[in-house]
Amino acid sequence: MTRKSFRQEFRLPDLDLHAPLQKFMRTHPHHFLPYAASAYIYHTERNEQKATELYEFAHQLADEYPEVNRPFISLLPRHDQFFVDSCNAELSELVPKTIWTIQGLFYSTHDDPSPIDLQSSVVRLEDGDIIIINPLQFNRQKNSDEIIESINSLGDVAAIISSTATHGIAIEECHKIWPNAKLFGTHEGNKHGNPRLPWSGFLRESEQLFEPDLFHYQIKGQNWNETVFYHPATKVLLGLADLGISPLHSFRSWSMVAYCLSMGMWRGSKTTSIALQNYQTIMITDREAFRESWAGVLLLDVEAIVLGHGGILKGNQASQQLRESLLWIIESSQGLSLFEKIYLPPLYA
Questions:
Q1: Count of beta carbons in the 10 Å neighbourhood of residue 55
Q2: Which residues are CB-contacts of 69 (< 8 A; sequence separation ≥ 6)?
Q3: Is residue 134 within 8 Å of residue 118, measured between CB atoms?
C-alpha cells in the first residue's frame, strides 16, 4: 500500500508493487498474508480475476495451516470487506438531539476502486442549524438518498467543514448536495485541491466561528493542518481525522486494515484503542508547536472522542487513551534520529 502511494505520488509507473511480497511468499509459503496483500494490489489495479484467485488462495492457506496463521487471523479479510465497492452509510445518535456520527466509505479519487472507512460528525447548533465535520461523499454511498434525507431531517445544513487537508475531496460532492451551506477548510494554501469552490473561509483558532456551541483547535506544526472540535456542553471531542485512528475498530474496508498494518498501528496483542501512523513524525514541521497544540487539547474535559476513520472512545479513560498515544511527542526530547521518529509513534501508542 505504501509503495502504491509512492508510485502515484511520484509518478513511478514501473515500480513493482508485488516484488516485496514475492520474497515473503518464497520464505513463508504457508502464510496467507502476502497472498492477501498481493490480491489487494491486483484489486486496486482492477484485475479482478487475479485478485479473486489470490484472495481465495489466501483463505485456503488460512484453513490448511491454522497454527501458522493464527497470530494474524484477525487480518484475514472477509469477502464483503475486501471487494467493497459501496455499502450503506449508517447514521447513529451519539448525544440525543445534538450530535450524530455517520460511518461510510470515503473515495480518495473520483475513480477510487478501494475506498476506505470514514466517520463524519453532525452537530446541531442552538439555532437549530447543523454543521457537518469531516464529510463523506454522501451521494456515493449505497443508500445515498436515504442518508441524505436523514441528514436533512436533523436541520438545515449551515456549514460543511473539512478538518484535514487530505479529506477535502468530499467537499466538492457535498457542495452539489447542499449548495447554500458555507464551506470551511483548514488548508488555505491548496484549498483542499478545490480552488474553484466558493469557500467561506479557512479555520483559524483566533477566530471561533461557532462559539459558544463549538470550539475548534488547530494542531499546528504539521503538514496537514488538522483541526479538532470540542463541544463543551456535552464534552465531546470531534474531528480527529488522521491524528487518531483505532486499529481495533471493525472496519468495513480491508484497505483500512492494510493501512493500519503498514503504518505500524496493528501490533498483535499489543494493539491499542488509538494510535498514530509511524510516518507522523516526519510530517511534523515544528515539534514544539505540535506539542503545545496537543497540550491545550489534552486540558479539555472530554468524555467522548469521535475518530475520523471510525470508532468512538467513551468514558473517563478517553482522554487518557488519547494522551498515551501522544507520549512520544509530549515527553520525548528533541533531536531524535530518523529511525526513532518513524518508530516511536506506534511504540508509545
A1: 24
A2: 30, 31, 32, 33, 61, 62, 76
A3: yes
**Quick one: pLDDT at residue 10?**
39
Rounded-to-integer distance, Cα 68 and Cα 78, Å: 19
Rounded Cα distance between 115 and 121, Å, is: 19
Using one digit for the tens of pLDDT, what is the confidence trace for 23-40?
Answer: 888 899 999 999 998 898
**Residue 267, SS3 per DSSP:** coil
Rounded to 5 degrees, φ, ψ at 341 are: -60, -35
Type of residue at 178? W
Average pLDDT of span 183-204: 91
Q: Beta-carbon neighbour count of residue 328 at 10 Å?
A: 21
DSSP E strands, the chain: 90-95, 99-106, 116-124, 130-133, 157-161, 182-185, 199-202, 215-218, 227-231, 236-240, 304-307, 312-314
| pLDDT at residue 305, rounded to an integer | 97
pTM listed for this prediction: 0.87
Q: How far apart are CA 322 and CA 28, in angstroms?
A: 36
Interatomic CA distance for residues 55 and 86, integer angstroms: 19
Assess contact for 2 and 262: CB atoms under 8 A: yes
